[in-house]
Amino acid sequence: MTIGQAAAELGVEAHVLRHWEDVGALVVQRDGNGYRVYDDRALERARTVLRLRRVGLSLSEVTAAMAPSKSAAQDVVRAKIAALEAEVVHRQRAITFLRHAVECRHRYLDDCPDCVTFVRGT
User: Fold this and answer.
1) Residues 45, 53: contact at Cβ < 8 Å?
2) pLDDT (tens digit, 0 to 9) for every residue of the chain, 122 residues total?
3) How far is the CA of 52 from the CAs of 58, 105, 118, in angstroms?
4) Which CATH architecture has domain 1-62?
5) The whole model's pTM is what?
C-alpha cells in the first residue's frame, strides 16, 4: 500500500508517517522507483507507534521502546509507567485540593490552614 493509503488506514496524515520514518521509529521499504511501500509488517509497526504515542510516549521513547533489545525497551516502558503513576498522584492531590476549595468555609483560600498546607506541599 502507498503512504497515502497507509495514512488513511491509520487515521493520520502522510507527513506524520514520513516524520516517524525520519526519526527512526518506523522503517518502510521502497520500491524500484523509491516510493514507500507499506506491507503488513510496516503497517503493523506503524500501528504500534501510534498506540505508543497515544499512551503518552514521545517519539524518542517510542523508538527506544521498539528497540531490538528487549531489556532496553522494557526500561523505557518502566520509566514511562513510573512517570504516569507520579502524574496520577499529582492529579489526585490536585483534585483533593480543588474539592476542598469548592467547599471551603473560608472566603479566601489563604485564610484556610488546609489550603495553605496544600499549597506549601506539606
Assistant:
1) no
2) 999 999 999 999 999 999 999 999 999 999 999 999 999 999 999 999 999 999 999 999 999 998 888 898 899 999 999 999 999 999 998 898 889 888 888 877 778 888 878 777 75
3) 8, 44, 34
4) Orthogonal Bundle (1.10)
5) 0.75
Q: Answer for the pair 114, 93: CB distance below 8 angstroms, yes or no.
A: no
Tell me the sheet residues that pair with 29: 37
Three cell numbers written together for 120: 506549601
What CA–CA distances, in Å, run from 83 to 5, 10, 53, 88? 35, 27, 15, 9
Burial class (CB in 10 A: 0-12, 13-18, 19+), 57: buried
